[in-house]
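User:
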Amino acid sequence: MKPSDSELKSKVRAYFAASPPEARRALNKLRELIRAAAPAATETWSYSIPAFRLDGKILVWYARWKNHTSLYPLIGEFRRANAAELAKYETSKGTIRFPLDKPIPAGLVKKIVKARATEIRAKSKSRAGKSAKKKKARA
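Assistant: Predicted structure:
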């Protein structure tokens, strides 16, 4: 059974409330930046952390840890195109980590979210085009 919007909001609220003040401020900043970069995205809960969904797909996840907050996924194409800017932060294959003792880089977060939104929408268009071709072939 799919959780209701109020259940999702309750999980996100509880996650924020269980966070130390410094992490909660960073999470709020990430959430604010994600919403600004993708106003059509809706908040959700996935893999036991807060996330945003766009066009039915997960746009990004964000989480708090002991010494940093993280934003997922960090897509390969974006990593290559923005290597110099990303070099300032600890990253792994699909994650960027923002230290709690430094400000969240607003411009970078917005660029990541917008790149991910573009990727989701491009894949949706590609799937729609393939589906239409299959329907024509069957007719």
